[in-house]
Structure formats: C-alpha cells, structure tokens
Amino acid sequence: MWPIIRLILAGIFGGVLGGMGMGGGTLLIPLLTVFCDVPQHIAQAVNLVSFVPMAGVALIIHFKKKLVDKSGVLYIIIPSCIAAVGAAFLAKGLDAGLLKKLFGGFIIILGIYQIVCEIIAAVKKKKQAAFDKETGKEKPDAGPAGKNAGGQGQSGI
Predict the structure, then answer these.
(1) Which 8-state DSSP code applies to residue 69?
(2) Block means of pLDDT (10 residues each) for the chain, length 157 residues?
(3) 3-state SS, residue 108
(4) Whole-model pTM?
(5) Which burial class, exposed, middle or buried, applies to 62 when counting CB atoms under 10 A from its CB (0-12, 13-18, 19+)?
(6) Distances, alpha carbon 150 to alpha carbons 3, 138, 142, 143, in Å
(7) How many CA atoms lie within 13 Å of 68's alpha carbon, on the beta-carbon side?
(8) What span, in angstroms and rounded, lies between the C-alpha atoms of 40 and 80?
C-alpha cells in the first residue's frame, strides 16, 4: 500500500507544478526515481505519459484566463518537436546511470542560473535604490505617467 501512496503523492506534486506551467517533470522524475524506486528510463516515460493529459488540462485553463500568447508559438513548437524526436532516440540508447547524471546536472545548472539571476536582480535593485536616494531622483524611465525624462511616452514593448 505504501508504494501506491508514494506514487499518488509524486503525481500530485508533479501535477501541481505542471498545472502551473513550471515543469512538473522536473519534480516528478526525481520523486519517482528517489522515493518510489522507479528506474530512470521508466520515470522519464511515465513523466511523458502523464504530461499529455496534464498539459491539456493546464492549457485549457490558461487559454480561458487569456494567459497564452499565441503570436510566436509555432517558432517554439516546431523545433521543440523535432528536437524531442532526436532526444527520445538518444535517451533510449543511453545508460540509466548516465541519464540520471545528465538530468541531475541539468537541474543543478538550472538552479545555479536561477540563483545568479536573483542575485543580479537584487544587486541592480539595491544600486538603483542607492542612486535614487543619493540623487533624490527617480529612474529616468519611471517618471510620472510612464514618461521618461525627455517627456516622451514609453510603450513598454
């Protein structure tokens, strides 16, 4: 009974992240391999199978809330599908241990990237606040009513 409960919990956590569009597989694969003793290849296959209905439900909700920008989606979908075919054949031929290491390395690099981006954003914010305090001015592009220092409106695009 406990293995089934662990699988259900892994599915719930993966579904929550997947429903928010944050990559449920990023969590689901480690949960399946580490806590449920599922082999790496099987975990990746389960992730792919669970992704289809999960993405469908999430997409319907995101479309209804008008959160999907369709303008450049084909430029993402077509190369992604082509790359997925190649990667699927590549993954099939790789050793499960190597797949685990590659996936783990990817997650570590992604985590480091996110931390570095947050640090850079915090430093920029702190420098801007110090500049604003020192000069008693706002940022040049954040003046009243969205106008910059020259009085020209900014579209933000």
Answers:
(1) -
(2) 82 77 76 87 85 82 86 85 88 86 89 95 94 76 48 42
(3) helix
(4) 0.56
(5) middle
(6) 65, 13, 11, 10
(7) 14
(8) 22
